[in-house]
Amino acid sequence: MSSQNPTNPLDETAVPVQNARSKRNRAVGAIIGVGIIAALGLTAYGSTGAAFNDQKTARVDINTASLVLGVSDEDNSGTIALDFNNLKPGQLIPKWFTVTNAGSIPATANLGSAFTNATSPTNPAVTYENLRIGVGTATGQTPLVAVTKLPANGWDLGVLQPGESKTFVVDVKLGGDAGNEWKGQTFGGNLPVTLTQQ
Hints:
By secondary structure, the chain is of the alpha+beta class. It has one helix at 14-46; strands at residues 69-73, 92-101, 107-111, 116-119, 131-136, 145-146, 155-160, 165-174, 188-190, 193-197.
């Protein structure tokens, strides 16, 4: 009786074992293939492409800065009306006014020097060189200039922070050499008070 070599591919007794293994491998491969195809099919046909999501709103508020000028004179009326009455030659009269930055940003204050709606002395002999005005913050006399030589850009009142108030003085003086031509005369007009964003 000849011995059989199980490793010999021509060995008849080894063929059934190899055939069984081959069938089993094919079956496993088929199952894996079906699983892959099923998974792909579910992906292709069973999925809608939708996904859970959640959303909330982001509120956006944009507020511009405010710049609000508040003014008042000595009677706290909310306006500035400076009346220099009964001015005599050589006399200086001070009047006070307050400027408030009621806005939300720093600003520079200015008192303009261009009179509008002005009334002038009726006597043509009156010389404006005798009538002088000064504006400042000092408690003493401010530098005076003739109404004919007012600063072109007005008076710089400085920077006011939001909510800050500053008080200023306007000095008016009639020169000591003013003669009878000044009796009963009137001079007046409006000057702008301005706040400008710094």
